Structure formats: structure tokens, C-alpha cells
């Protein structure tokens, strides 16, 4: 657990996740795993089922067809790698277990928003209701 906390504090949350998942202190680790940097991981789709964003635990993501190296700050800002270093490029306006909304902060993209994205369920065992 201590190693995970040190990695997290050093700005390496995805390396820290391994330690949190293996730790024998569910209460403390769950607190960390509820942070936005972990909750955003996965594949997010629009209402039609089209994949809009994929966030991976190796610090890479695809948003609307563009690939980035990213880090989620505590203020719900997604920092991505640019030529000048890490820069705030997306803002998380909603993040729950069932919804993600993003706003693009890059110059020329200020009007771009990705609203009400839903997590892609890994299995297709949902009942059809028929």
C-alpha cells in the first residue's frame, strides 16, 4: 500500500493502481480507486453505441479518433502531452459509474463537447426484455 501511495503522490497513478488492487486494506484502497483518474478508465460510447473515448491504464487514451498520453488532475481536468509538456486539454463535466461528459479546451475546439457518454459493457449478457 505504501508503494502505491508514493507512486500516486509522484503523479504516477496508473502504476500505483497495481499496488492498490493488491493491498489488504479495502477501505483505504477503495478511497483511491474512486478518484477520477481510475473511474474514467474504460471505453465510453455515445447514445448510438459509437466508441467516442477509450482511457487505458497505461496513460494513453483515444478521444474522438485522436490518441493522447493523459493524466487526470484532481480538478477533473484531463492533461495531455503536447510539444510544450502536459497541458489542460479536456475538462470532465460529468463522471459517474454510468456517464461521462467532456469539454474540449484546446484552441479551435472550444465548442466541442462530448455529452452523456456511457461505459461500454464488457459482456453482452444484458437481457433484451423480450
Beta percentage is 35-45%
Globular, elongated, flat, extended or rod-shaped: what is the shape?
A: globular
Question: Would you tell me the overall average pLDDT?
Answer: 87
* Biggest sheet, spatial arrangement of strands: 1-2-3-4-5-6-7-8
Order of helices and strands, N to C?
Answer: HHHHEEEEEEEE
Rg from alpha-carbon coordinates: 16 Å
**How many domain units?**
2
Structure explained in plain terms:
The protein has 130 residues and is an alpha+beta fold. It has two domains: 1-34, no CATH class; 42-119, no CATH class. It contains four helices and eight strands; from the N terminus they run ααααββββββββ. Helix 1 packs antiparallel against helix 2 (13-22). Mean pLDDT is 87; it is low at 123-130.
Briefly, what is this?
The chain is of the alpha+beta class and 130 residues long.
Keywords:
single chain; alpha+beta; 38% strand; 130 residues
Amino acid at each position: 500500500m505504501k508503494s502505491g501511495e508514493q507512486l500516486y503522490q509522484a503523479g504516477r497513478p496508473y502504476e500505483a493502481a497495481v499496488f492498490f488492487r493488491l493491498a489488504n486494506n479495502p477501505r483505504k484502497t477503495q478511497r483511491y480507486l474512486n478518484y477520477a483518474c481510475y473511474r474514467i478508465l474504460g471505453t465510453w460510447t455515445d447514445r448510438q453505441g459509437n466508441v467516442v473515448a477509450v482511457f487505458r491504464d497505461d496513460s494513453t487514451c483515444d478521444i474522438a479518433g485522436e490518441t493522447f498520453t493523459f493524466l487526470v488532475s484532481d480538478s477533473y481536468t484531463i492533461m495531455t502531452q503536447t510539444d510544450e509538456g502536459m497541458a489542460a486539454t479536456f475538462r470532465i463535466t460529468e463522471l459517474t459509474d454510468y456517464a461521462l461528459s467532456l469539454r474540449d479546451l484546446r484552441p479551435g475546439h472550444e465548442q466541442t463537447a462530448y455529452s452523456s457518454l456511457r461505459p461500454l459493457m464488457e459482456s453482452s449478457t444484458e437481457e433484451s426484455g423480450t
